[in-house]
Amino acid sequence: MALGAVALFVPLAAGRWSLSLLAVPLMALSMVQAYAVLTSPRRGMASVYLPSLLAMLAGLLLFFSSALVISGLLLLLIAILMMGGFSKILSAWRAEPSSRSATAVNGLIDISCAALLWFLSGLIRAEQAIGIATGAYIAAAGWRMLAAPMEVVEPAAAVAAANSHPDAKLGLPPSETFARLRAEAKSGARTVLASDFTWMLTLAAVFFAIHLGRMPISDTVLGISSPFIATAGDLFMATVLGVLLVLPASFLWRRVTRPVERFAWSLRLNPKPGAAPNPAADWLISSKAGLISICASPRRAPHSALL
What we know:
The protein is an all-alpha fold. It has two domains: 2-147; 156-306, no CATH class. It is 76% helix and 0% strand. The chain contains 14 helices and no strands. The chain has helices at residues 2-14, 18-38, 50-63, 70-94, 97-120, 126-147, 155-161, 176-187, 189-214, 221-256, 258-269, 279-287, 290-296, 301-306. α2 (18-38) runs antiparallel to α3 (50-63) and α5 runs antiparallel to α6 (126-147). The relative contact order is 0.11.
């Protein structure tokens, strides 16, 4: 909500660079929304990532606004706001009663922001109209996260889900095999988390060393800070690619391979009496075993998704 207030005043203070600067709070909102979903029990549902994806697209659109015609920029922003508003209204019908009203109201606010942007663009400068609509959109998203936060797993529900597969759409019956895999993932979560951070720091150090070697270093503030800024840009673009490409691709791959995985699990869990273990089924299951470990350990989920 504070970022929304900042976005309202950026066009007044930044002048011609205001549109590019408005991309910063939108991208920050996108990452906050993605992290909230990744640490919630609903992280296995593709639809809950849509607000984060739309906020990232709007941020990238404003960041590269200098290469776009202002009328086309307005139409694209209005389309993103309308799409986000209607998706939230539709998701409100399937949400829990406690969060249904807040989600629906937030969707209506997004649609109102689109109408406000179209109305104000004919009265004031386009930068100011976009700043007002963007500020209202970000503030409304912050209000929704406060009024209807991601639900937590109740103890009874957690116990009931211990023997089930994390991907409910597979339609698999509860099994002790899933309970064992969940327990193994939970016991190794701390080690995996440390390994994830080690790889992230290693890659960041490699990027920094590359920029340090290829950039001229001087005793000015710009010369000293250039390698750090370039490394931060690399890490930011890695996050953007993770949100816009890797995350949707992983959900698409999961959907496409569900029939194969369902068949493999049926062979593994219900073997014929006296039959030897099926190596093909074991290989198919192991190829998607990361789903169990990611969904079973809330602490690992954000870092594994980014990797």
